[in-house]
Amino acid sequence: MGGMIEFQSNGHTFQGYLASPSQPGPGVVVIQEWWGLVDHIKDVCDRFAKAGFNALAPDIYQGESTTEPEEAGTLMMALRVPEAAEILTSAVDALLANPMTQGDRVGTVGFCMGGQLSLFAATLTPKVGACVNFYGIHPHVQPELANLHCKVLGIFGSRDHMTSPEVVADLSAKLDAAGKAHEFHTYDADHAFFNDSRPEVYNAEAAADAWSRMLAFFRSELA
Length: 223
Known about the structure:
Blueprint: E1 3-9, E2 12-19, E3 25-31, H1 39-50, E4 54-58, H2 69-77, H3 81-97, E5 101-111, H4 113-124, E6 128-134, E7 151-157, H5 165-177, E8 182-187, H6 204-221
Parallel strand pairs: 3-4, 3-5, 5-6, 6-7, 7-8
Antiparallel strand pairs: 1-2, 2-4
Helix pairs in contact: 3-4
């Protein structure tokens, strides 16, 4: 349904996968897992487009991707946070400038590493009007929660060995302390349970409920 596009910022050119609906709708920036901009993330964008959203997945790794966990971990830890910040804010601006995007703010959603980057992006610009964090984690990405100006929907798994219930509780407490609106939901599932390309962790029931919950959240917050 979608295809690769280029977008620019401060003389730099970035790439991303854009999937557009049949008529203008709310914009959503979709942020990759540690694997890179792989087919699963592109499929998520296509699903958003079918649901009426204009979805852009920026290529955070700028051309690199992998199917090997060890290499994925290396790529994630090598992430240059200032560069990622530029890519994310540029993606927000590019999506808002696209004629298929309605409104003056967009949503962000990410998975694993991308979940943390979704929260990070929402603290970088007030142009983000809704943030969804699927079991986000990255030790080097520390969002300034005081700069958050939208509601957060958090999606987690109770059997997650990377984003543990203790980590989730700590994030909730920090958001409470900062006075930031958030709604967290935890499923009886593993880390990455939304990824239907990974049968060893995919949980169809939880993923379907989380998808419906996320669409309702975006439609409400970006109306």
